[in-house]
Amino acid sequence: MENKTIKGRLSLLRAEMKKKKVDFYLIPTDDYHGSEYVADYFKVREYFSNFTGDNATLVVSQEEAGLWTDGRFFIQAEGELAGTGVTLFRMGEEGVPTLPEYLLKNTKKGNVVAFDGRCMDAATGLGLEQLLTARGVTISYEQDIASPLWKDRPALPCHDIFVLPDDLVGKSLKTKVSDVRKQIKKAGASALLLSKLDDIMWLLNIRGLDIECNPVALSYLFLTKDAIHLFVQKKEVNKKVARFLKDNAVTLHEYDEILPFLQEVTVKGKIFLDRRCVNYALYKAAAAKAELVEGKNPTELMKAIKNATELKHLKETYIRDSAALTKFIYWVKKNVGKREITEMSAAAHLDHLREKLEGFIELSFPTISGYGANAAMMHYAATPEHDAKVKTEGMLLVDSGGTYFGGTTDVTRTIVVGPVTEQMKEHFSKVAAGCLQLSAAKFLYGCTGRNLDILARQPLWDMGVDYKCGTGHGVGYILNVHEGPQNIRWRYTGNMVEAVLEEGMIVSDEPGVYIEGEYGIRTENIILVRKAEKNGDGQFMKFDQLTYAPIDREALDKKYLTEKDVERINAYHKEVYKKISPFLTIDEKEWLKEVTRPL
C-alpha cells in the first residue's frame, strides 16, 4: 500500500534540496551526541522514512531514497518502509553496497552531498569527506535542510539534573577530573572536548532525564588543566546542583553556546578528542581552533571498569532485579490461558514490578515483549495496533531492564507458554548451553570479545545456525544500558572498537536464534570480569554471574545438551534458587524450587 505521507515529505525535501543545489542529502539517526536512543526532537530520519528502528541512515537524491540498517532491523524495516518509496539496503549482506560505496558510485564531480554536521559523528563525516572530495564532490555540513520542514516538531527535551553522592559512586568529581587531566597531559594535550553524554555524566557525578531510558542530560564539556566548562540547558540546573557544580569549580554555559565558545576560546596547546564520539561540526570547530590529539576518550575506559563501591551496589541491585523478573515469569506461567495476556500487558506487568523496587529511576530501555513470530525481530516493539495475544502455545520472549540508584540492568528470558516443537526445544537448549558456556570461560588476560564470542555461538554454529548481532555489550552504572569499549562479537565493522576485557567490566552474554515468521529465542545474563589465578603462563581471568533467573526448564532437553551443559545448567539453577528464593512468596518459592530442580 502506498504511503502518501512519507512520499509527500520526501517530495518537499527534494524541492528544498533543489533550491539549495544539494544533490544528495544524508539523514542519520543520531542526535548531536551520537546517543543510541534519541529524543523525539531528533527523530528527523524517522519523520522522512517511517522507519522507527535504531542505527539507520537515510540518503535522498532526486531519483532515489535508500535506508541503510543492520541485521537486527531487517524484518522491521521491510514492513515500515513498504509503500514509502524508500529502498532498504541490508548492511553486511552479500552484494549490498555500503553507504560510502553507494555514494562513490552515484555521485559525480561537482555534486554536493549535504548533512547536518551536528548529527553525524566525526569519524563517519571525515571518512566521507576524504572519499568524496577526492573526486570533486563538495561536502556541506552547516545547513540543516530537513528539520525546518518538520512543522510540528517536538520540543527539545528539558528535565532537572540531579547529583549522585560519593558513597553511591565511589569516587568524587574532583578525583575523577584529576585522573582525566593526567591522561590528557600524558597524551600531549592541554584540553579535552567531550560530547558523549554518559561520559560527561560519569565524570561529573550527575545524571539527567533528557533521553528516554538513558539517565543523561544534553550537554557538552570542555576541560582544561585549570577549568571545567559545562554546557547544559541552564533551566535544568536547580540551586542544589548549581551549588555542587560551583563547589567543584565547574563553569556553566548554555547548551547551544558550545560552537561559539570553541570559536572564541583561547587554547594554549592541543585539544584532545575522540572522533568516534564528537560530531563532525564540533570536530571542524575544534580543528580550526587548535592542533588536535585524537584517541579514545579516557573517560570511556575509566567508566567501564567499575570500582568496589559500584560493584557492591550492582550485585545487590541485580539480585533484586532478578527476583522481580522471576516473579514475572511465575505470573506468566500461572495466568496464561486463564486471563487475557498480550505482549503489551505482559510488559506493563513486568515494568510495574520493577517500578515498585527501592531506588527505581526508570526503565533502562523500553521492554521488548514479543510473542511467537514477533520475537524473531530482535528489537520488536509492540504497539496498540500490533499487540499480539499470548496464547497457550509457543514462547514469549521478554528483554527488559531497569536503572536504579545502585545500577543498570538488562536481562532476557524466553518463556514457554504452551506446547513447543522439537526444533524449538533444540534451539532453546543450544542457546542456553552457549550462554552458560561463555559465562564459565577462563581466559588469559589480554583477550577481547573476539576471542570469546565462539563459546556462545559454537553450539549453534555446529548446527549451521547464527544470530545477526553481537553476543555481548558493556552496561553502564546508573547510566546507559549499552556501554563501551568492551563487547563480545566475532566481527568488527565501521567504528567498532575491540577492547581488552579488564577486571571490573560487566558485559552481557546473550546468544539467540531468530527464525523469521516463526519464533525467536534469547537467553541473556550479565556477567562480571574478574581475575582468576596467576601463574607462569600469565594472569587468567573469569566471569562471575550477576543475573540469577530461571532458564525455562520446559524447553530444555538433555538429548540436545552435553554432559557439561547439563552440569552448568544445574549449577546455575541451584544458585538461582539460593539467591532469589528469599525474595519470593511461599507459592513463588515452591514453584521456583520445582523449575530449578536438576535436569
Give the mean pLDDT: 95
Name the poorly predicted regions: none
The main β sheet shows up as: 6 strands, mixed
Reported CATH architecture of the largest domain: Alpha-Beta Complex
CATH secondary-structure class of the largest domain: Alpha Beta
Compute the CA-based radius of gyration. Answer: 25 Å
Structural class: alpha+beta
Q: Give the strand order, joined by hyphens, for the main sheet.
A: 4-3-2-1-5-6
Q: What share of the residues lie within helices?
A: 25-40%
Q: Give the terminus-to-terminus CA distance.
A: 50 Å
Domain tally: 3
**CATH overall fold name of the largest domain:** Creatine Amidinohydrolase
* Approximate shape: globular
Strand content: 15-25%
CATH homologous superfamily name of the largest domain?
A: Creatinase/methionine aminopeptidase superfamily
Oligomer: single chain
Describe the structure.
With 599 residues, the chain is of the alpha+beta class. The chain has 3 domains: 146 residues, Creatine Amidinohydrolase, Chain A, domain 1; 141 residues, Creatinase/prolidase N-terminal domain (Creatine Amidinohydrolase, Chain A, domain 1); 291 residues, Creatine Amidinohydrolase (Alpha-Beta Complex), CATH 3.90.230. 35% of the residues lie in helices and 21% in strands. It has a 6-stranded mixed β-sheet with strand order 4-3-2-1-5-6, with helices on both faces. The protein has a 6-stranded mixed β-sheet with strand order 12-11-10-8-13-14, with helices on both faces. A 4-stranded antiparallel β-sheet has the order 21-28-27-24. The mean pLDDT is 95.
